[in-house]
Design goal:
With 320 residues, the chain is α/β, with parallel strands linked by helices. The chain has eleven helices and eight strands. 38% of the residues lie in helices and 14% in strands. The structure holds zinc ion.
Length: 320
């Protein structure tokens, strides 16, 4: 058996989790520390001097007298759920190798399905906000792909109905031998189509100017060449479409895992929520070596993410 340092790394065990975040008080303190690492700071006037109105867990600024809670202005705003349940949800969503469905989350944290769905989607939104600015550099393999749609029957491949188009790119190290290359970061994003204009916009937001980007010969990928200094379209014998080429080993392996992972958790994903599912996979993938601190990372990102009311959660997010 091949020893994989990633698979054998220590995560945060459930026992450690309970020791650190087993009570409401511990969770509140962890949240406070994540939000105000240097101590309380009034969101209005920046004053540090404050008093705690204990009964309602409100912090009152001594200068402007504004009252604020540790959850106000964060993704946890207006939550009626005990923090313990939020923390357990964050732990479960970050420690497992595969994602967790809302149904499983409902059972694990003991809430209604609707609540579990909202918790999961708010946390996925945190991951999306955190990852949307990610830029890949150096050697990058990029490819187009579709999510879902296989169940609808009919034609496969580019342009088949019922499939959500997406663009995936993987930054790898640059060894000559493809099997020695290591994957560094992943970026995967739902897009409205594969037109040149769309690809140009995606490339601007995803690729460093100095990167070397390998794609297959799909014509609209030429737009990447307008954004990065070195675009290498691989036009191969037997047609322009040959993503089995070793140059695309990693982007294809990871796309396979991503589809299996997301569709294994959810049989069917509505296109408007797809960006969040992709972001969840991407966020976890890009932190796969950090299992011990991954919960802290999510917590820190969560307090930096503005509230996401239900209304916004269900709105379409096409083209992000
Ligand atoms: Zn103040």
């Amino acid at each position: 058996m091949v020893y994989s340092p990633m698979q054998f790394q220590h995560g945060l065990s459930l026992v450690q989790f309970i020791e650190r975040y087993g009570t409401e008080d511990q969770c509140a303190r962890a949240l406070f520390k994540a939000r105000w690492p240097k101590g309380f700071e009034c969101p209005d006037c920046g004053c540090r001097s404050h008093c705690l109105l204990d009964a309602r867990r409100l912090y009152q600024c001594n200068t402007c007298h504004r009252q604020t809670s540790v959850t106000a202005g964060t993704i946890f705003q207006h939550t009626h759920l005990p923090l313990q349940k939020w923390f357990l949800a964050m732990h479960l969503l970050t420690q497992g190798k595969h994602g967790l469905s809302a149904l499983e989350l409902k059972r694990q944290i003991g809430v209604s399905y609707e609540t579990a769905w909202k918790v999961k989607h708010k946390l996925m939104q945190v991951m999306l906000e955190r990852e949307k600015g990610r830029i890949l550099s150096e050697r990058v393999e990029a490819d187009d792909a579709y999510m879902g749609g296989e169940h609808h029957g009919g034609k496969r491949g580019r342009g088949a109905p019922g499939k959500a188009p997406m663009l995936a790119a993987v930054q790898t190290s640059s060894e000559e031998d493809p099997s020695e290359r290591k994957v560094v970061y992943l970026k995967v994003q739902a897009v409205p189509n594969f037109k040149g204009r769309t690809i140009r916009r995606w490339a601007k937001r995803s690729l460093a100017k100095t990167s070397t980007v390998l794609t297959d010969g799909m014509r609209s990928f030429n737009a990447i060449g307008e954004v990065v200094e070195d675009h290498q379209p691989m036009v191969m014998e037997g047609g322009w479409r040959n993503s089995r080429h070793p140059a695309f080993k990693w982007v294809n392996t990871i796309l396979g895992n991503l589809k299996g992972n997301i569709l294994g958790v959810c049989r069917w994903i509505s296109a408007k929520h797809l960006p969040r599912y992709l972001a969840e996979f991407q966020w976890r993938f890009n932190r796969r070596f950090d299992l011990e601190v991954i919960l802290n990372r999510l917590l820190r990102a969560a307090v930096l993410t503005p509230p996401m009311p239900q209304r916004l959660l269900v709105l379409a997010e096409k083209g992000r």
